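Chapter summary example.
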Amino acid sequence: MSPRHSALARRTKADTAAVAAQAAAPKARPPVIAVRRLVKSYGSGDAAVHALRGPEDPEGTPLGVDLTISEGDFVAIMGSSGSGKSTLMNILGCLDIPTSGRYLLDGIDVGHLDEHQLSLVRNRKIGFIFQSFNLVPRTTAVAQVELPLAYAGVRKSERRRRAMAALTLVGLADRADHRPNELSGGQQQRVAVARALVTSPAMLLADEPTGNLDSRSTDDVLAIVDRLNAAGRTVVLITHEDEVARHAKRVVRLVDGQIYEDIRQAPVRGLPPALLDPVEFASHTLHVSNVKANAIGGVRYSNFPGSDPPDPHADPWSAAVGARTVRGEAE
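The structure predicted for these 331 residues follows.
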């Protein structure tokens, strides 16, 4: 073989090896949320109200809101009434559409989806937790948790297994056959958390999840959320309470439809603040139950089975339920 042909063969072999290595390399996951130049307006002309506007250009035209949330982050979105936080939550939850701008959810441009496709995204990519629980009356806890799986076409036996795993994770396996009127407010919200988790969504979206709870139940629910995030679950929480926002790794504050403040409280790849140093975290709480617990040298964790602190490196949900994306399994 001539020197020229030998050199060409070596280059070809090297190029082939490089292509193979690139194909074998794991692809970087997209952000769970990527919002670009998002504007939401009501009305038109001089009477238009910009619920989400972002900064303005020199001519006063809204440039829109930009927001990126990485996988595994725990973000609290705060703001007073009229700040735009509820509008942003509705768009992030695919419950409303922006006037302009782009929203990518787990790499999917939701602006190009029809209503049927959006309903599938809501079912499989987002786990909703609402302030008012939104449980179905006269329906058992396990049946409540099974509902999203039924809509996804998962067979009955698998639905029951996943629902019981979710209820066990929130400490309510022994309340599986109880109806909402047989549960306390805190227990109802924990059922709602289990229902949000059961499809293994890309994101938990919680709208004032502790707004109807007393301080003890608030601590219980937030302890569950802390553990889920420590195990890698992405959480976006809408709240007006500083005490709740302390649990987040990042706090985004909205004022008049734009991001006024964006503070990082803990790294994305790590534990949420409440688990980094539980005793120190509890010492600054406004909740009486944790103040008393800290005063006697300990910190109260939550009504999980057992009394030990949660293991932040364990992911019982992944082990119990399996893959993150629900695949419909017809009965």
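To summarize the output: The radius of gyration is 23 Å.
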